[in-house]
Write a structure and sequence with these properties.
By secondary structure, this protein is an alpha+beta fold. The protein folds into 3 domains: 2-159, BirA Bifunctional Protein, domain 2; 171-266, no CATH class; 272-379, no CATH class. It is built from 17 helices and 11 strands. It has helices at residues 11-23, 45-50, 53-58, 81-94, 134-149, 154-165, 176-190, 196-204, 252-267, 272-285, 289-297, 329-332, 338-347, 356-362, 386-397, 402-405, 409-427; strands at residues 2-8, 27-33, 66-72, 102-107, 114-120, 208-217, 220-229, 241-242, 301-307, 313-320, 325-328. The strands form 3 sheets. The chain has a 5-stranded antiparallel beta sheet with strand order 1-3-5-4-2, with helices on both faces. A hairpin with a 4-residue loop joins strand 10 (313-320) and strand 11. Helix 4 (81-94) packs antiparallel against helix 5, helix 6 crosses helix 15 (386-397) and helix 10 runs antiparallel to helix 11 (289-297). The protein is elongated. This is Relaxase.
Length: 428
Amino acid sequence: MIAKIGRSANLYGALAYNQLKVENEKGEILFGNKIIETASGNYSVAQLAQSFTPYLIANCNTEKHTLHISLNPDPKDKVSNDRYREMADAYMQEMGYGQQPYVVFKHTDIDRSHIHIVSVCVDEQGKKISDSYEKMRSMNVCRELERKYGLIPATDKVHKQIDRVFRPVDYKEGDVKSQIASVVRHLANYYQFQTLGEFNALLSLFNITTEKVQGELKGKMQEGLLYIPLNEKGERAGHPFKASLFGKNAGLPALELNYAKYKETLKDHPAKPTIKAAVTIALQLTSDEEAFKKQLVEQGINVVARRNDTGRIYGITFIDHNSKTVWNGSRLAKELSANTFNDYWNKNITPEIKDSVKLQSKISPANNADLPPDEPYHLFDFLNTVQKHEGDLIDAFGTLLPEANGEDYQEQDFANRMKKRRKKREGR
């Protein structure tokens, strides 16, 4: 079961969205906690809102006071209304909202039934209820409910989804746009890089590259970005796609903002000395490119070497899947620049490595617990670390599970409209 928690300043809008489902016979109210009853048992939005009014009047300064939570079991789970009521009550109790007024709606307008809970996160004194570690707590509650009621674990679905989403693009399979979208929309959320070149090195693992384009729009020169599929040889294998097709985060302005942010976080990143040491030792212990790459892959580091038409290495990038960071060689150390590797692999000039003994001691198991174990580190195993990053993965993929959860475009549209309204208010 996957839980999604939304917050807004629009209680009436959240109630109206759910009540409209009821009125259109695509939903029903399962029960209400601390909700003023009506003689008929039916409710209007205004009648539901009355039960929350005292809490909003008492509200001190919490802007996003409204909670809109959805609990989404697997479509194969057959959950009765009584069981939904028990699950909603248990979830709200464990999350600290059990004493709040809330309404539980069941939606039946798509191929999976699920429930929505509307409540407020301020108590009777108007104080905000703590949301510390909310995502982790919510995840733990969901796992407990799965065990208690014998539901299909959401982590199984996340594993399958990751396997489907994070894989190299295969232009022969068709629907290349969707393949690229599945990768591009999420890589920036997991990896830190400082240049478009480093981003392209990361994308190359998935048979994708980008290219800057320029054009005139309304008399002004504009820059944009194209995403291009590659074949197994790294050659173009299809027509390019505009970045706008993959969302704002895939565009050049968003990426450039990330460059600036990651420049600061990577300056003194704790993984840097470990990666530098691993690369240096691999350089000392191997004599050719293939062996060098193999040794680093076994430690969770991919190597991307860029060559010109004559075979000269003009760029080298290291992608560490342990720390989710991307590094140009020269950024790790001057002696790890592209020239060093070109001289070694193309001209047989052995590189001079300073402090080799000192570096080797840094990465010994006794002194550094961050290095992966000795067993092989398969290229895409880093994408299956659900237990370590389960909360983040469920956030990232919770809305990308069409086979598991169905699609509720009205729900997504409602969430988008709420965001737009907030932005308009904040801009006034």
